[in-house]
Amino acid sequence: MNDELLVARLRDVLARSTCSSNGEPVPADEILAVLRGERSREDVERLVDRALGNAETEELVRLLPALEKAVDEAVGTSARPRRAGWILGGLAAAAAIVVGVVLIAPRVGEMTAPVEYREGDATALRPLVERGAALDRDHFTLAWSEGPEGSRYDLTVATVELRVLHEAKGLEATEYTVPREALEDLASGETVLWRVDVTLPDGRHVPSGTFRVSVR
Amino acid sequence: MTDEQVARLRDGIVRAVARHCPDWLAARREDIAQNALIRVIEAWNRAERSGVPPHSYLVKAVFTAVAGEIRSLRRERTVGLDDLRDESAPASGAPGPERRAAAAQLGHAIRACLAALIESRRVVTALALMGHGRERIARLLGVDTRRVDNDRHRGLKDLRRCLEEKGFRP
Hints:
The complex is a heterodimer.
Chain A: H1 3-16, H2 28-35, H3 41-51, H4 55-75, H5 92-104, E1 134-135, E2 140-143, E3 152-159, E4 164-171, E5 175-178, E6 191-199, E7 205-207, E8 211-215
Parallel strand pairs in A: 1-8
Antiparallel strand pairs in A: 2-5, 3-4, 3-6, 6-7, 6-8
Helix pairs in contact in A: 2-4, 3-4
Chain B: H1 3-20, H2 23-26, H3 29-50, H4 54-76, H5 79-88, H6 97-116, H7 119-129, H8 134-141, H9 145-165
Helix pairs in contact in B: 1-3, 3-4, 6-9, 7-9, 8-9
């Protein structure tokens, strides 16, 4: 077996087998910086050694080239942003994406890099409703972990096409029952996405991940 | 970025997760891609306003979004329960328990053997096995590609010998 075949075979085995997870994973932004050549050779060596002993770190080191390829195939290496690109589609699918842009518009300009969630970060919210849970539309209560004292929460509920179903802003409680009328159009079993943006006591805004449940 | 490009990006994320993540994560690839794409759309919209170079920014957005989803799923995962579920109900097309056990043993051996290689060979060989090309490895280590090829060849040779000593014939 030549080197290329051996690499391909062993790469496949590594992907299909999980290594042990000793210690904390290396944060994604640090992995990216190292693999983009923004760190020293010693940092590269450290990252490789961590990857061999931590499953999540290894997965991310392995995923980066595959995701770069996905981006290349999707938009090409010379992509340039088109200011109105999302809005000019004209198709039904594009309309859904436009709603997605509206959904996020209030946060435009507030940050210039994707938010990174770190393990143990007190501001990283966790859902307290099981992912994928089927919630009765008459008692559609969403709950999340508490932020620092004095935090306020903005909840957005949307369909998978990013059509906003309901928003509730400035909440002090860490749970909220979505009004039944907001969910009336949905078929039983339909997926609903939700997210919570926290306004911290110092005024910073921290978006949560996006979570999903279904309605019944 | 058109809706067609968004659809291609989504498919690309699904394929990447399916190919490069363990079965329990690969089984959630649709969720991971869907949720990551929402974050990516948000990041892309910000990039349009801030003038950040879009390709590198988009890569960063996709990578951090997928990483966030994977981290979130890992936090949620109850190891014992999911392991039982993996054994009793493998995803469609996934290898059976025996093949997965064999792959796990070989995977463990590969990592142990990699960790035992001398440093220059270890880094080059591990990065190659994690899908990184020779040009990138050369750039990261500040060496030329011939040196990478040489270290990779010797590293693979050492790795093969180590695996054979452990009873594996890769």
